[in-house]
Design a protein that fits this description.
mainly beta, 9-stranded mixed β-sheet, 20 strands, 56% strand
Amino acid sequence: MIALRRANERGHANHGWLDSWHSFSFADYRDPAHVHWGPLRVINEDRVAAGQGFGTHSHRDMEIISYVLEGALGHKDSMGNAASIVPGEVQRLSAGTGITHSEYNYDATGTTHFLQIWIIPKFTGVTPSYEQRSWSAAEKRGRLRLVVSGDGAEGSVTIHQDARLHAGLFDGDEAATLALAPGRLGYVHLVRGALEVNGHALRAGDALKLRDEPEVRLRAGQDAEVLVFDLPPLD
């Protein structure tokens, strides 16, 4: 089964300082057909205006991943971490028993464009933790680079779930294939550009759900940046 969802079919909220597109039900956007895909619970594409941001707020029992596309995202949390996340970096927060944090665009003129991704953990009540890593464009060029996993494979950031997230950059003749083990779910989110995925033409913001498919096939990119999830079914 392959299901294509176009970018403009997502939920949308514009608060002035924040322009956000929701791939799954979030806040005031409720859609019973799009609540989660396996443990993948949230993909919000956020644009935060200059000098604005999310004030201190709390989370628990969720794996939270930030993937910055443009600008920088300032982060502070109750564990004492303070950092700036820029393009090429992946930040992971395991909220566990509970954290508070804030996210802010400190630039006086530019917009911060990023994806916030939530993954439901396999275990609740874990000790909160933080991790941040960077990958060069060359490491993602023409291939799928593992950036998030349940076991830290290949130097990826680690989450409390048997889920894997790959990031890739594709243009022209560059192509890649990701095998999916029986019973696993695939989810493809095209971040920017254009890309053909399993015979479907995707443009920025489009997504593809895969179930009972042996692989994800990527080809014919046009300045494409893509995220590919390899997910377990949700018990």
